[in-house]
Design a protein that fits this description.
CATH class of chain A: Mainly Beta
Number of strands of chain A: 7
CATH topology of chain A: OB fold (Dihydrolipoamide Acetyltransferase, E2P)
Radius of gyration of chain A: 13 Å
CATH superfamily of chain A: EutN/Ccml
Structural class of chain A: mainly beta
Order of helices and strands of chain A: EEEEEEE
Largest sheet of chain A: 5 strands, antiparallel
Oligomer: homopentamer
Chain lengths: 88, 88, 88, 88, 88
């Protein structure tokens, strides 16, 4: 997984029907010191993550597991809200 | 997912039979400020996205879900047409 | 998918038995203006693509679908021969 | 797989229920000479790897196999603790 | 797939039980002219590839197919030993 910061939202009315009701958040990858190191990407969120929060982001086909549906076309999902990180 | 802009089309007559009838669009990744940050790639489109539109693009094996077929050889699909993006 | 140009061939006698009979082509990613933008990679071809032809290349586990076999260890396949590309 | 060094830990209370009980470690990719060559990433650990240990890291949907569960949203797992590496 | 050169070995005693008995080789991606273009990575080998040999490497979840086991946590496998490459 990567560490991400929630930076914004995406609105899409005309979309695959399996994405209806899913919140779409703009994410930037950060390092453990909270420096942004990644480009804008879009993740599905079910945990209610807010702008500015640090989150754990799962990519690839594993992200489909978030929705308990092997047939949903998503490749990025927020799987945790981060309380703290400790790095040597 | 990434944010993409539709930049063009690809025509392929001789192709895997499961791709017959699929529209193939040239996509560039963009950031939330609509700056192009990615190279030309090709996505399958079922939503009728037009040149210049901003779209949500799913990559990897998750893209196969678009066609409701676990046996189709595609790795990139347009899963939404973006109405608006808001980024802090 | 990416756009590729066929640049050469690879010969491997000692290989996984499920790859026996598969043609292995060296591919370079190109943009829609046909500039090479990628490194040498190897794709399985069933369409009879020739050296110098532009092709549509599927990567990752989706490529396994080309061979109608969920148990074949390949991660790149040619899924179409490109007739034309139009990019704004 | 990549070679990684364990650099820290991530704590997340509010997370997908299938991640409850999984230890989350911050990993950096290294080369065989132990130079850090990758950015901070987060892997699930079941082997009890400690800070500073060199580990074998599996990425993508294959990482789900670690938990013997095809329905868990993880994309990075520690699959071995490295005793030694020899590189010419 | 990518073209790789075998550069070394990794020894791991404490590892996922499904990796017991698998030979782990350090691989570098090369181009068709045999220039090294990739970082150290680790692939499972069943073909008996030796140090200095050029090999065909499959990445991602497709690599699991090498072991005929959909439940093994590996993401890179040697699927062929290369006899010759020809590039225009």
């Amino acid at each position: 997984m990567i560490i991400g910061i929630v930076k914004g939202t995406v609105v899409s009315t005309q979309k695959d029907e399996r994405l209806v009701g899913s919140k779409l958040l703009i994410i930037n990858q950060v390092d453990a010191d909270k420096n942004v190191i990644g480009k804008d990407a879009v993740a599905v969120d079910l945990l209610g993550a807010g702008i500015g929060e640090y989150v754990l982001v799962c990519s690839g086909s594993s992200a489909k597991s978030l929705l308990h549906n092997p047939d949903v076309p998503i490749d990025m999902a927020i799987v945790g809200i981060i309380d703290s990180m400790e790095r040597t």
